[in-house]
Amino acid sequence: MNKPQIVLGLTGGIAAYKSAELVRLLVKQNYAVHVAMTEAAMHFITPTTMQALSGHPVITSQWDASVSNGMPHINMSRAANLIVIAPASADFIAKLAHGIADDLLSTLCLARNCPLLIAPAMNKEMWQHPATQRNLAQLEADGVQIMGPDSGIQACGEEGLGRMLEPEQLAQLITASRQPKLFTGKKILLTAGPTYEAIDAVRGITNRSSGKMGYAIAQAAREMGAEVTLISGPTTLATPRDVHQINVQSAIQMYDAVMHNVLTCDIFIGVAAVADFRVAHPNEQKIKNSRNNLTLELVSNPDILAQVASLPNPPFCVGFAAESENLTEYAEQKRLAKKLPLLIGNIAQQAIGSDYNELILFDDTGIHPLPRSDKLTLARSIMRYMAQIYPGDK
């Protein structure tokens, strides 16, 4: 009974096959999914399939005799925390924009008192048509969230914009839409990933940071309404949706990018694993292997987090500490030395490269463990905790 209730509406389109996987993902994420299908949708995928995946009867008609009060559109819309239409055809988008309610799905959308998200799916020419674009603009003005579409090869063989987003993307956006907008109007600057310090033209000093935790925090911050700038060292990760990303290589480049952007931010989160040292005189060409010992002179890199925290009017600063031992002692020492209101610690061996982590939050009130979970779930927990202790406007 405590599961969030989602009504998933399917309209006519070949992308309906993706909706089966979307149901599976949402159920796996502990949503209760109730499926409503238009007559056209049933030409592409059967109600039996959707019922088997959702675990609930599928409603296809306003006149379903199994609904005792004869009002399935009211019953479904009132029980829902969220209504998602995926796929949303051009025809159905037009109905929504003009308030037409001539079948079960369009009627329950008109009768709703919860958020509505749609995932358009159609041929590229239908997507680009001025009528479709006018209808979408009207829906956005009405507060409907548009998810996608994507670009690529379409069922008709043409290529362009109009493909429905993949189920994994939709599931992520659905969960993101339900996050509290705790940081609306706030600018958050954060660093993520490793840095790379050149030895010569092909070799360098780096570390094993994957950047996954920093990217997850960037995504969680954006989900909660913040304007997010992510300064990233070299990673293979995709930029989180609607996040402005600045790519750098070295610690000096990261420092310059941070100092260029920090004066306009409200919150700074230093997640990156910044190299403490760099080579004093990197060779412009590849150093030939002479089988002799090589001595490198290393010099200190700037401590980015400490520099930001010591500004005359610093943003709210959050640090990270990845330790191999004595986490509680070393992390608290680092927090106090840099005068941080919040520091997040973890054991490096357990976290590097993994999709999961276990964290401890350190602040003036003590230590607050976060149990092992995937990094995006942890990132959302961190942002919710930050909202409790963030002092507000500077």
Quick take:
The protein is 34% helix and 24% strand.
> Going across the major beta sheet, what is the strand order?
12-11-8-13-16-17-18-19
Number of strands: 19
Helix content: 25-40%
Gap between N and C termini: 42 Å
Account of the 3D structure:
The structure is a single chain. The chain has 394 residues and is α/β, with parallel strands linked by helices. The mean pLDDT is 91. The chain folds into 2 domains: 5-177, Flavin prenyltransferase-like (Rossmann fold); 187-389, CoaB-like (Rossmann fold). Helix 1 (16-28) packs parallel to helix 2, helix 1 (16-28) packs across helix 8 and helix 3 (72-79) packs across helix 5. An 8-stranded mixed beta sheet has the order 12-11-8-13-16-17-18-19, with helices on both faces. Strands 2-1-3-4-5 form a 5-stranded parallel beta sheet, with helices on both faces. Strands 6-7 form a two-stranded antiparallel ribbon. It contains 14 helices and 19 strands. The two termini are 42 Å apart.
Helix-strand blueprint:
Elements: E1 5-10, H1 16-28, E2 32-37, H2 47-54, H3 72-79, E3 82-88, H4 90-98, H5 104-110, E4 116-120, H6 124-128, H7 130-141, E5 145-146, E6 150-153, E7 159-163, H8 167-177, E8 187-192, E9 197-198, E10 204-205, H9 212-223, E11 227-232, E12 244-247, H10 251-261, E13 267-270, E14 277-279, E15 298-300, H11 304-309, E16 316-323, H12 327-338, E17 342-347, H13 348-351, E18 356-363, E19 366-374, H14 375-389
Parallel strand pairs: 1-2, 1-3, 3-4, 4-5, 8-11, 8-13, 11-12, 13-16, 16-17
Antiparallel strand pairs: 6-7, 9-10, 14-15, 17-18, 18-19
